[in-house]
Amino acid sequence: MSPGAARILLSLVTDKRFWKAVGSALVAVVVIAVGIGAGCTAHNLQTYVDEQISHDFNEYIAPINRKTEGVKLNAELIYAAYSTLFDNPKYSNRNDVMSRLTKCAYTTSKRTEYKTDSSGQKIAHTVTVYLAITDNNTIFNHIEKEFDISIDSVQRQYLYDLSLLLIGAQPMTLSDGVSDYQEMVAQACGQNGIAQYSTLVLAVIQQESGGTGTDPMQCSESPYNTKYPREPGAITDPAYSIEVGVKYLASCIRAAGVKSPEDISGISLALQGYNFGNGYISWAQQKGGYTKQNASEFSQQMALKMGWSGYGDIDYVTHVLRYYNASGSSNGSQFTYPIQRGMYTITSGYGKRKDPITGEIKSHNGVDFAAPEGTPIYASDKGTVIYAKLGIAPYGGYGNVVVIQHSNSLVTMYAHCSELLVQKGQTVSKGQLIAKVGSTGKSTGNHCHYEIRVNNKDVDPLPYLQQ
């Protein structure tokens, strides 16, 4: 367990206010509390979330994520609220609670769009727009109203801290634009003494710009910018942006006293300092370190001082950390899911099942991740593409298929793709976009058939996967 995760867990289970807040809540946090002395780790919590809570929530969250414009739902906060406040006998109707909780994380509105018919006439259509709520307190307020309960500031902070533990379970991937900067970022990190934090820098770039524009790290206002005006978007050289941004983030990491890439508590302080600047890190250290509450307080103080309506992003830490593990910081040799969380439904697991085409009972050699046609498919780990085309023996029936070799004994396979984006012999990185979901070959609907083979023998993929 990382030091940051350990501190959060220990504070959760030793503070009496927490137990007063959760009452008879069971499972995830309680399992952690009981097992800490026996070597229980944050993995227990993530395993429970990955294998049960997220799976159960998927039928509610996935359809909304397919409709939302921009940012997806804050699933981790919903999981934290459910496992802490509602996973107990008082709320026996799990499906009802999950459906209502999911509704607390987004809003809808109506918008008029115009389409031109065959005669050239414009016809108005009213469409429903789905937007994820990005402010945690707004989500908490909606939960309070929906369930007629009260969640005070102490409870909200605990739930937020718990959601941070689950960030590592979210396989949000880096865009191609960000991945293109990997070599440049690694070099800049080495020059600034933070070589082990290059994946954190990539996560920052993903949040700041998605790898687009001339100032990918959005650092024109940094004190280290000496070539361009210190105003938003002034830097017009991506290489210089990374040079300045990495130097500034390195100073934040040192000021925050970050101990390692696993020190989420320290990294959180450094990240919020990168976003806020103006002495936030030293100010927060006097209050015991980073918290969402003091980030909000600092933002309000600075907005008042500047005469602005707002200051910085008080959810910046959460926004960046959702990409951090996806960029390979702490998953080690564990494999990530081939499709982003919230964008799929597992329709068939590994093992015996009734064949959907023949109706016969047969072995299913992988796991089927159902998703709309064109949904991105990502490499579960780095490796070399050994097959990428319409499948023939020994891949007959799989349609368009990609096979990646990760070691002498282990490969992953991604089948029924609508489009292949890699070629045989190509080296791919963990989380790299390799194909898109389809229904080619022997298939009854759009999905990614995913297999892991060890020494050319298929195995159940789920134990190998870490979200």
From TrEMBL:
M23ase beta-sheet core domain mapped to chain residues: 363-461
SUPFAM superfamilies on file: Duplicated hybrid motif (SSF51261), Lysozyme-like (SSF53955)
Transmembrane intervals: 21-39
Pfam (any one): Lysozyme_like
Matching InterPro entries: Cell_wall_metabolism_enzyme, CwlT-like_lysozyme, Dup_hybrid_motif, Lysozyme-like_dom_sf, M23ase_b-sheet_dom
A Gene Ontology molecular function term of the record: metalloendopeptidase activity
Key words, A-Z: Membrane, Transmembrane, Transmembrane helix
Keyword Transmembrane: yes
Domain CwlT-like lysozyme: 177-337
Name by which UniProt lists this protein: Peptidase M23 domain-containing protein
Species assigned in the record: Faecalispora sporosphaeroides
